[in-house]
Amino acid sequence: MISICVPIYNFDVAELISALNQEIKLTNIKIEIICIDDFSDKKYRDINKSILEIVDLYIELDENIGRSSIRNKFLDYAKNDYLLFLDCDSKITSPKFIRNYLEFIILNNPNVVCGGRIYPPKKPTKEYILNWKYGIKTESKTSEVRKLNPNKSFMTNNFAINAQLFKTIKFDEKIKLYGHEDTLFGIELKNNNIVIDHIENPVLNGDLIKNDDFLIKTKHAIINLLPLINNEKNIPLINNEIKIIKYFILIKKYNLKTLFISITNFSNYLFYLLLKLNFASLFLFNIYKLHFLIKAQENKV
User: Fold this and answer.
1) Are 7 and 88 in contact, with CB atoms under 8 Å apart?
2) Which tens digit of pLDDT belongs to each residue from 171-215?
3) Are 38 and 87 in contact (CB under 8 A)?
4) Is 0.85 surpassed by the pTM of this model?
5) Can you list the positions of beta strands (E) in the chain?
6) pLDDT tens digit string along 111-135?
7) 83 CB contacts (<8 Å, ≥6 apart)?
8) Beta carbons within 8 Å of 14's beta carbon, 6+ residues apart
9) With b meaning 16 or more CB within 10 Å and e meaning fewer, what string describes 148-171?
10) How deeply is 132 buried, as exposed, middle or buried, from its count of CB atoms within 10 A (0-12, 13-18, 19+)?
11) What distance in Å separates the CA atoms of residue 45 and residue 272, rounded to the nearest whole number?
12) Which is nearest to 158 in space by CA: 56, 94, 90, 109?
């Protein structure tokens, strides 16, 4: 019934695979685990050889194809009716994690269902504080909150999708860098009148990244938005899905881009230093992102 799909990149997945395998042993339902390594460093490929005996299929790619393409690639190998995707840095928080998905799928036959994400409750050291604070504030949402705006709340880290649907609506393979492939996929589902279901079945984000790396990944995510916002017909689709786009549209509408850039040009490097060093203000973070988006859209970065 379920093919568990774990795309791997530079992470030790032994703990995750072991937890999944332990639960699978307790069920008689057909479940397979497929892992595809997206050309990780040799160190991690060597480490992950330890899972060969407990997964149904393990594949190492000879080049990095990116976050969208690798997810689509699982369709070439998955044999079951549903594909359950988990990020490789996920940590299972419930002994009934797979069962929770199975029960919902059997009862509801959903198109897409998301389980959610949580972050460690303990505040990390200062070099990881931005990723943690952003995750706590924007991504750690209960299923009841996610249901209020189901397609906007879609995240790729922990979701199941009907295989036949996935064959018709795939991830945009033009997206190679980190970020917003989930947003765009959620919008594409919405455009096809596919409503996403949400259940309370979260995984723990087990791999916080340092502040400066998080800022770099944020820039990559913004760059992924450019093809969308450069096409005017897409603006209504993403205006309500991405907060930064709302601000971008307002600034553009009232011809404030030049003024905004001239003001933030002097402060944005300071914001970068503050965010990098410890001052994890989400307000400053949003200003920083908006500044980069406007300059990127004008091809000035």
Assistant:
1) yes
2) 988 766 566 778 888 888 988 999 899 999 999 997 899 999 999
3) no
4) yes
5) 2-8, 31-37, 57-60, 82-86, 90-92, 112-114, 117-118, 158-162, 197-198, 203-205
6) 999 999 999 999 999 999 999 999 9
7) 2, 3, 5, 74, 75, 160, 161, 163, 166
8) 47, 48, 50, 51
9) eebbbbbbbbbbbbbbebbeeeeb
10) buried
11) 34
12) 90
Q: In the structure encoding, which two tokens stand for residue 222, read together?
A: 């913004």
To which residue do tokens 């990881």 refer?
128
CA dist 69 and 75 (Å) reads 11
For residue 46 the two structure tokens come to 């060597």
Give the position of tokens 């060969």: 52
The owner of tokens 């149904």 is 56
Report the candidate in 73, 273, 105, 79 with the shortest Cα–Cα distance to residue 201. Answer: 105
Looking at residue 10, its amino acid is N
What separation in angstroms does the CA of 112 have from each of 70, 94, 159, 173, 190? 18, 20, 7, 20, 11
Q: 137: helix, coil or strand? A: helix
The answer to whether 179 and 218 are in contact (CB under 8 A) is: yes
